[in-house]
Design a protein that fits this description.
By secondary structure, the chain is mostly helical. The chain has helices at 3-17, 24-35, 40-57, 59-70, 83-106, 116-143, 151-166, 172-183, 188-216, 225-249, 256-272. The protein is built from eleven helices and no strands.
Length: 277
């Protein structure tokens, strides 16, 4: 298999899994066992490609938030709250993730090199999803449909993003969506939108940080920029399709199917891949 084809496949895998609650990082690390190991810059940059798809999908919302600072008198509410308030909460969630992420980076955290912890994260994450959706549904039955993002939700979403980054297999989208649902935003569409929007500055900042690190350490000359470009484009295109489908899916369906997928994949990896490899 050529290197460009392998990069294309990795970009497709990233695009389809970044926003589905099944862990894109976990899938990438597993796929790279057969398609070839890639740099941290490659892995984070193609995640930024997937985030670009969210920018395109939510462009009207982003314009609305930006316009609320320029023309506050004409600002329409976002899920029942002032758009500038919503924007401040997005910034707070990003800020929490950024501070905690830098702390983890300074402590020298490295992604796991074996499949076993990823497989367990997939399985345990499946149980977490089922339990979280059950309790979120009970909360919604009592409180009704709440689309407002509170400051508590924003802070917890920021923490959830960092936790998902530290434990591949957890899934950033699953962690943030369900934390929002459990913390009080009972409307699944509103929780999903906030989780996706806060991922925009998070992943672009992570990519920028890695780029600076690569250039400062002289690693840019060793990066295969053609392969990275192919994977970036593939990730953006497939993520656009994936997010569009997911937004329609969650309007009438629960996340149970994704939990079952996590059980199957995680269980298969635990049974078929030797421990420690």
């Amino acid at each position: 298999m050529t290197d460009l084809l392998a990069a294309l496949l990795l970009g497709i895998i990233e695009g389809f899994t970044e926003f589905l609650p099944i862990s894109s990082t976990g899938h990438l690390l597993i796929a790279q066992r057969w398609l070839g190991h890639r740099s941290d810059l490659f892995n984070i940059s193609i995640q930024a490609g997937a985030i670009l798809a969210v920018v395109l999908i939510y462009w009207p919302r982003l314009v609305q938030l930006a316009d609320s600072f320029l023309h506050p008198a004409n600002a329409a509410p976002v899920h029942g709250q002032a758009p500038r308030d919503y924007a401040y909460k997005l910034a707070a969630a990003f800020g929490v993730t950024a501070v905690l992420g830098l702390l983890v980076k300074k402590l020298g955290f490295e992604l796991p090199e074996t499949v076993t912890p990823i497989a367990w994260a997939l399985v345990l994450g499946g149980f977490w999803m089922i339990a979280a959706e059950y309790f979120a549904a009970r909360r919604a039955a009592v409180l009704g449909e709440i689309a407002t993002i509170t400051w508590t939700v924003a802070i917890l979403v920021g923490i959830a993003q960092m936790v998902a980054g530290v434990f591949p297999g957890t899934s950033r989208s699953a962690a943030t969506i369900f934390v929002a649902l459990l913390a009080g935003t009972t409307n699944r569409a509103a929780a999903t939108e906030f989780a996706f929007l806060v991922g925009i500055p998070t992943m672009f900042a992570a990519t920028g940080y890695e780029l600076l690190d690569v250039y400062s350490n002289g690693g840019a000359e060793h990066e295969d920029w053609s392969a990275l470009g192919v994977a970036f484009v593939a990730s953006a295109v497939t993520a656009f399709v994936s997010v569009k489908w997911l937004l329609r899916y969650i309007q009438r369906n629960r996340f149970t199917a994704f939990a079952v997928y996590r059980f199957v994949l995680g269980g298969a990896l635990l049974m078929l891949v030797p421990a420690g490899t």
